[in-house]
Amino acid sequence: MILAIANQKGGVGKTTTAINLAAALALRGKRTLLVDLDPQANTTLSFLDMARVTRSMYDAITDDACGIADVVIDSPIKKLRIAPARIGLAKLEAKLAGEIDAPFRLKERLDTIVGDYDHIVIDCPPTLGLLTVNALVAATHLLIPIQSSYFALEGTDDLLETIEKVRTRANPGLRLLGVVITMHDRRTSLARDIRAQILDVFGDKVFRTVINKSVRLEESPAYKESIFTFAPDSSGAGEYYRLCEEVMQRV
Ligand SMILES: Nc1ncnc2c1ncn2[C@@H]1O[C@H](COP(=O)(O)OP(=O)(O)OP(=O)(O)O)[C@@H](O)[C@H]1O
Ligand SMILES: [Mg+2]
Q1: Contact between 159 and 126 (Cβ < 8 Å)
Q2: Which of 7, 12, 16, 21 gets mutated to test ligand 1 (max ligand atoms within 8 A of its CB)?
Q3: Model confidence over 223-238: pLDDT tens digits?
Q4: pTM above 0.85, yes or no
Q5: Rounded to the nearest 10 degrees, what angle do helices 235-250 and 14-27 cross at?
Q6: Strand 2-5 vs strand 141-147: parallel, antiparallel, or unpaired?
């Protein structure tokens, strides 16, 4: 499985989902690569010190002499490796402007290492630009985190349209694996209404597991840990564990 985690809305839980899902897969013994495609580098910083990052996905995508294997770094979790991002990734769009193969760069690069891993998880930036398109072209599956908030579904049309374009032009096999509701607060009736709206639009694509608001999930990246080592008994750990189970069942 090459799983892109995407939603062009900012702050909806893409990175939190990417790091904890990748950690859950690795802790189950799966050789997992976590690719950070966001210039903000939040995924990278959730496990690594920037001082350890000399080359990043920017080099892997733009430099023919640099492969993904050359940028990958071990994480604190056995079986989990990270292909890091750096702020320089923000220049990718300008750098690849006019290159005919621009949307296919990541796919080409991943093709050479795909056999080294059981699963690859890609954290996307909050845009529908070239980086996200590269992820969608390379992915076998897509997971969309949707924040349980008043404007939850705003923008999903654009996302679905982009997915359709990628399917018709470049990656017919791309499957929507599911939609996960994040930062839910089950005590409020607004949150329950929003969940009902999301279910209306996405039906059985919505994962049964809902990720509730949790201070532990917010804190763990500051300690460079996934939720499973930082707070193994927390509700967030249980929820991401169950989400991983559902993901495995659907693949
Ligand atoms: N279940 C949760 N409970 C509480 N806080 C959360 C939860 N999930 C994510 N957060 C926090 O919300 C903020 C946004 O989450 P995250 O970085 O995962 O979103 P994102 O979609 O990757 O954002 P961006 O679009 O900027 O990349 C972060 O501070 C994160 O720690
Ligand atoms: Mg993020």
Answers
A1: no
A2: 16
A3: 999 999 999 999 999 9
A4: yes
A5: 80
A6: parallel
